[in-house]
Amino acid sequence: QVQLVESGGGSVQAGDSLRLSCVVNGPTFSRYGMGWFRQTPGKEREFVAAITRNGATAYAESVKGRFTISRDNAKKAVFLQMNSLKSEDAAVYYCACKTGAILTTPPSTHTREYNVWGQGTQVTVSS
Questions:
Q1: How would you label 74-94 residue by residue, b for 16+ Cβ within 10 Å and e otherwise?
Q2: Distance separating alpha carbons of residues 123 and 91, to the nearest angstrom
Q3: What are phi and psi of 115, to 5 degrees?
Q4: Cα–Cα distance between 52 and 33 in angstroms, integer?
Q5: Burial, 55: exposed, middle or buried (Cβ in 10 Å; 0-12, 13-18, 19+)?
Q6: Alpha-carbon distance values, 30 to 27, 34, 125 (Å)
Q7: What is the pLDDT of residues 66-77, one digit of tens each?
Q8: R_g of the chain computed on alpha carbons
Q9: DSSP letter (8 states) at residue 106
Q10: Closest CA to 37 of 125, 102, 127, 123
């Protein structure tokens, strides 16, 4: 059974940076597609960034140029480097895993494409 554990959230000022981590407890991490989503109260969970098995990435327009997703297969982890944070970036951030990803699958940007989720980590940004 695959489990995800996020860390790295916190409270920062606008313009600061944070790095989120997601460690995956699963036997074949290198075969998983991974993503980050975020959610604020009363809103649907929204796509932030995704990375495929072979390292292809995709980003929401709102974070392009500021956020970077990466993965370390040896550490079974995916990361989200968040720079130049804005107040509108404040949310609970969720790590997501797509265990059935095939090699040619493009980055998955919809919640329905992921089958395993972490518990979430809070990011607060003060202006």
A1: eebbbbbebeebeeebbbbbb
A2: 5
A3: -115, -5
A4: 5
A5: exposed
A6: 9, 10, 32
A7: 999 999 999 999
A8: 14
A9: P
A10: 123
Number of Cβ atoms within 10 Å of the Cβ of 56:
13
| DSSP string over 51-73 | E-TT--EEE-TTTTTTEEEEEET
Distance CA 52, CA 34 (A): 6
The H-assigned helical ranges of the chain are none
* Confidence band for 124, pLDDT divided at 50, 70 and 90: very high
| Closest listed residue to residue 74, CA positions, set 37, 111, 123, 23 | 23
pLDDT tens per residue across span 63-114? 999 999 999 999 999 999 999 999 999 999 999 999 987 777 899 999 999 9
Question: Are 52 and 105 within 8 A, CB to CB?
Answer: yes
